Amino acid sequence: MTQRTAVITGATSDRGIGMATAERLAHDGWAVVVLDLDAARSADVAARIGAEHGVPAFGTAIDVTDEASVLAARDAVATEVAEGRLPQIGAVINIAGITSPVPFLETDLALWNTVMAVNATGTYLVTKAFLPAMIDAGWGRIVNMSSVSAQRGGGVFGKVPYSAAKAAILGFTKALAREVADTGVTVNSITPGAVDTNIRVGTTPELEARIAADIPLGRTASTAEIAAVIAFLTSEDASYLQGSNIDINGGSHMH
Ligand SMILES: NC(=O)c1ccc[n+]([C@@H]2O[C@H](COP(=O)([O-])OP(=O)(O)OC[C@H]3O[C@@H](n4cnc5c(N)ncnc54)[C@H](O)[C@@H]3O)[C@@H](O)[C@H]2O)c1
């Protein structure tokens, strides 16, 4: 395979899906760009993954809610490509996200805006910034992170703003997939159920046990199990998936 660069947002959280995805794609031979809020940590995680897997790697800061920050990250990556330290961009994986367990009538506009901004607007801004390079190359893979909460109305941890933001990502994915279908770029999404990460801030062992009991497979997913599906969606083999969504929920939502 031609070596290409995969750009992954939200990729520095220990035990997170983004870091597991960067590791899996580097293992598969991709060059990786690690983008997350903290510049030094993004650079450190990229350097470690690059060294462990023998692939080019670069990390820098991004706040996916801030267009200037997204464009600065895009420009920094473009410089790495132009100067030959990274191969051309072939994939963008929008993983940065936050959730919120606040009941609807206790939410306020600030919370709604924040959850929408990181999950939905972030996916929009990052995709818009990096898509032109893939269109120019005539090949690309975009994978967007939705959630089972978008399909079943929460019911795991995240409530109304989170479910709404993750549902926006499903519509975004399909409409963009249709629009760029003749460019060589595929756009797809995934809807994981509960994954064993630190995102459910303030969760309790009782709630985690209740979540697991609601899953036919009887446990939450590992981050590696999510990364494996992302690896497939970014592969040559996934060439006929366009505007598709893949459920990864242990049977907790079948439809
Ligand atoms: N863990 C689950 O059960 C689960 C299930 C379905 C979907 N998801 C989604 O998967 C994604 C990753 O979640 P996770 O469980 O690994 O959580 P996590 O909290 O470990 O990782 C989220 C990452 O996003 C980053 N981030 C947050 N705000 C950002 C911003 N404004 N700009 C850039 N980066 C930002 C964080 O720094 C962190 O590295 C999220 O989009 C989440 O909604 C998670």
What is the topology?
Blueprint: E1 5-9, H1 17-27, E2 31-36, H2 39-53, E3 57-61, H3 67-82, E4 89-94, H4 109-137, E5 140-145, H5 148-152, H6 160-179, E6 185-192, H7 205-213, H8 223-233, E7 245-248
Parallel strand pairs: 1-2, 1-4, 2-3, 4-5, 5-6, 6-7
The chain binds nicotinamide-adenine-dinucleotide.
Structure description:
By secondary structure, this protein is an alpha/beta fold. The protein has a single domain, classed as Rossmann fold (3-Layer(aba) Sandwich). The chain is 45% helix and 16% strand. It has 8 helices and 7 strands. The protein has a 7-stranded parallel β-sheet, with helices on both faces. Helix 4 links the parallel strand 4 and strand 5. Helix 1 packs across helix 8. The chain is globular. The N and C termini lie far apart (35 Å). Nicotinamide-adenine-dinucleotide binds next to helix 1.
How many strand units? 7
- Give the overall pLDDT as a whole number: 97
CATH topology category name:
Rossmann fold
Largest sheet: 7 strands, parallel
Q: Tell me the fraction of residues in β-strands, as a range.
A: 15-25%
Low-pLDDT residue intervals, each spanning 5 or more residues: none
Judged by helices, strands and strand pairing, the structural class is alpha/beta
CATH superfamily: NAD(P)-binding Rossmann-like Domain
Secondary-structure arrangement, i.e. CATH architecture = 3-Layer(aba) Sandwich
Specify the CATH class: Alpha Beta
Report the bound ligands by name, code or SMILES: nicotinamide-adenine-dinucleotide
